[in-house]
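Reopening this ticket.

The earlier resolution said the output was attached, but the attachment link was broken on my side. Pasting everything inline this time so it's all in one place.
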Amino acid sequence: MKKPTHHLIAEAPRKRGQVELTIGIDLGDVWSHYCTLNQQGEVIDRGRFRTTAKAIDKWFTDVPHARVAMEAGVHSIWISEQLEQLGHEVIVANVRELRAISHSDRKSDDVDAEKLARYARLDPEILRPISHRTVEQQEALTLIRARELLVRLRTAAINAVRGLTKACGHRMPASSTKCFAQRGQAAMPPGLKLALGPVLSQIAEMTLKIKQYDREIQRLTQTEYAETQSMMTIHGVGHITALTFVLTLGDKTRFGRSRDVGCYLGLRPKRSQSGERDPQLGITKAGNAYLRSLLIECANHILRPHGRDSALRQWGLHLAARGGKQAKNKSVVAVARKLAVLLHHLWNTQEPYIPFYQQAA
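Inline output:
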């Protein structure tokens, strides 16, 4: 029994022997630390470099082909792309799988870099590698996130104006967010105009900027990301959700099955089964929180009282009608999960959405 075991253990390094150098990088905002291992797992170099494109070119251009491992973070998108262009094999590790690093009792930048290198040298699957979107996709996604920031700032400003006027015995008129600044200026008490007038002006300016973002996002869906058009045939899915879905996933071929997308976005229930105990838990909430919130919003739109009829809506209403604790919320999450799967399927096939697919077949 010992010989086969020894044989299996000895084979693992030979399978990874094609890569002579393994480099672990602990990314930092100003300085990044690295550790280089040779084929035998010995540390042959360690140090640090500035987290800039110029420094990466300086340090990694003349390095022989190597396997480079780093954690997912703010700088990992552009750094991984630059290292791949220099001819290196890049592994971007899932932060959720690195508790041995983040929860270590002797954590330091040098130690973290060495651990990343050793994991990548032995078995990269330990790091649960993730696939990054391209820099161009990240730039387009930044447009959506900047719009989201303005929407949140506008909401906070409107709520502040309403609260401050109530403290003085007045009440702002009911209005939509888009019309709040205009109606607020007309209804603002004279004693508060000096204080809150500039805030209303900022709210009006943010509303104009949000409209500009909306036009630019719509232009992107019609030109550079025309594959989103098939997704928007689903009633309740608009330009922002479709474009965010494409840009967040980055590459539709990442998933062998469309069903995996729901799990990737954290819309599947967690599980903690042990013996006879298998409790019902909430969703994992892994993946991109903003895209998940957009899908939840779309699911609410589909299930609203006077929503357009479809097989997906009927299925969700059937789940909600079964009752139980938080039945409505569970049905919304389930519809959002199915919607994520459906969006990926339409992205792959580029077919228009058929509300009652089985009947049409």
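Reporter confirms the inline version is readable. The longest helix spans residues 135-167. Confidence is low (pLDDT under 50) at residues 1-17.
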